[in-house]
C-alpha cells in the first residue's frame, strides 16, 4: 500500500488553510492558540486518514502528529514558545503526515528565524543580541564550554507570535511540494 497523498488532497489543503489563518489571527490578537482548534484538527486528521487510507493512513497521520509534537516540544520546555504552538505543529502533522510536517518544520524554522530578526530589529535588540551571540561562540570555541552571557541591560524578551511563523512556513512548504 502506498502512502496517502497528504499534500495534494483538496479537502486537507482547504481545511489546513482555514486552520492556519484562524490560528494566526487568534495568536496575534490573544497570544494563544485554542485547544479546541488544535485538538479537533488532530482528531479530524486521524479519522479522515483512517477512513480514506485505512490503518496505514491512521498510522501515517499519528506519526505526523507525534513528529510535529517532537520537533517543537524542546522549545516549549525551555520557554521558547507556548504550548499552543507545539499543539498547532502536531495538528499540522496529523494532516500532512511525517514527511509533510518535517517539511513544514523546515519552512517554519526559516520563516521563524527571519521573523525573530525583524522583531529584534524593530525593538532595538538586534545588535546587542548579535554581539552577545558572537561572544558566546568565541568563548565556546576557545574553552569548548558553552557559557551564557546575559544581556547588559535587563530586557524583556520580545513576544513572538510563533503561530504565524508555523502557518506561513507550513503553507510555503505545502505550496513548494505542490509545485514539484
From TrEMBL:
UniProt keyword Membrane, yes or no: yes
Pfam family, one: Peptidase_A24
Protein family per UniProt: Belongs to the peptidase A24 family.
GO biological process: signal peptide processing
GO CC list: plasma membrane
Keywords on record: Hydrolase, Membrane, Protease, Transmembrane, Transmembrane helix
Membrane-spanning segments: 6-25, 37-59, 65-83, 95-118, 159-179
Domain Prepilin type IV endopeptidase peptidase: 15-117
Gene Ontology molecular function: aspartic-type endopeptidase activity
Signal peptide: none
Organism of origin: Syntrophus aciditrophicus (strain SB)
Name this polypeptide is given: Flp pilus assembly protein, protease
